[in-house]
Design a protein that fits this description.
The longest helix is centred in the middle third of the chain and has 33 residues. The protein has one domain. The chain has 13 helices and no strands. By secondary structure, it is an all-alpha fold. 37% of the residues are buried. Helix content is 79%, strand content 0%.
């Protein structure tokens, strides 16, 4: 089986099949909380009567989320090819557009580097690893906090194993992140990397202060979309307690990050993980609100900017 056939099999057979299985599991989760029609009626009531100002706040937090990611990207580009914020913001959105259709969002760099000179594209692609790693580290931090809470509240062997694995992974990632310049030193002694070593040396330009600033922005960004989910879920009738909800939603975003997925399957993964943490544990009053909150946050923070990024991509091609 060649590479093209494998890709078609993954995108057109495996992903839809996995999506259907996950949708069935999500339906079972909802059914376990009581009559579907009753939950749907309660959800519609909250949607129609819910606090519209809070819904507006959730919507406005989405551009704030994109902006924070653009600030990180602009900071990284200062060492490569400084861009005005407008272009850094646009390249962030095109990056989201590419990431949405690739497994685990690995295509993010391909959209971002379109705005740069050809000589700087490889360096910028390598710099995206720093941005993504900073966000992953923060996600791990919140995930570990959520796992600690989950182990205390719902003790079991699997939560303990997940916590141990998360702590070990986070320690290794943090060590790599804070010593990212050593990666360039390691690469210099690898003959098979000699063609790209000039670009890899960009990692040496980022100081410990730069890395900590990126972590700080990533922390704020995580709090933004965590708050979005909690506000939206509660407006729609989930009835989540704020402290426990914040910890479990942090765990939810961590699980979404570490579970491999592609576009169609990602929808199912998000819904199932949300149901697993909030519906199966009984913390949510309405499972429909949890499911809707999870998908609407996905739409606001990924699909909407991806659509805008796709339109910007068309304008780039027309201009060229």
């Amino acid at each position: 089986m060649n590479k093209t056939t494998k890709k078609k099999w993954l995108n057109y057979v495996l992903a839809p099949a996995l999506m259907l299985v996950l949708l069935w599991l999500i339906y079972r989760q909802i059914q376990s909380k009581g009559d579907f029609a009753v939950q749907w009626a309660d959800f519609k009531h909250h949607w129609q009567e819910g606090n519209k100002l809070l819904l507006l706040a959730v919507a406005l937090l989405a551009p704030a989320n994109w902006t924070l990611e653009a600030i990180k990207w602009k900071m990284l580009l200062q060492k490569i090819e400084p861009l005005p914020f407008r272009k850094a913001f646009a390249s962030t959105l095109t990056g989201i557009a590419f990431s949405l259709i690739t497994p685990n969002k690995i295509g993010d760099f391909a959209g971002r580097i379109l705005y740069l000179d050809d000589k700087n594209k490889l360096r910028a692609a390598i710099a995206t690893l720093i941005s993504n790693l900073s966000q992953t580290l923060v996600t791990y931090g919140f995930g570990i906090a959520g796992l600690v809470y989950f182990n205390i509240t719902y003790p079991g062997s699997w939560p303990r194993i997940a916590l141990a694995a998360a702590l070990l992974s986070a320690a290794l990632l943090l060590l790599l992140y804070l010593r990212i310049d050593k990666v360039a030193g390691w690469a210099e002694h690898r003959p098979w990397l000699r063609k790209v070593i000039v670009s890899i040396r960009i990692l040496k330009r980022y100081s410990r202060k730069d890395l900590l600033q990126l972590l700080g922005i990533s922390f704020i960004r995580f709090c933004v979309y965590n708050l979005q989910f909690l506000l939206l879920a509660n407006v729609l009738g989930a009835g989540l307690p704020w402290a426990a909800g914040f910890l479990l939603s942090g765990l939810m975003f961590w699980l979404i990050t570490v579970i491999p997925s592609i576009f169609l399957a990602d929808l199912g993964v998000r819904g199932y993980v949300a149901g697993l943490l909030f519906t199966d544990t009984g913390i949510a009053a309405n499972s429909m609100a949890i499911l809707a909150g999870s998908y609407m946050i996905w739409l606001l923070n990924l699909v909407v900017p991806a659509i805008i990024g796709s339109l910007l991509l068309i304008t780039i091609r027309i201009a060229r």
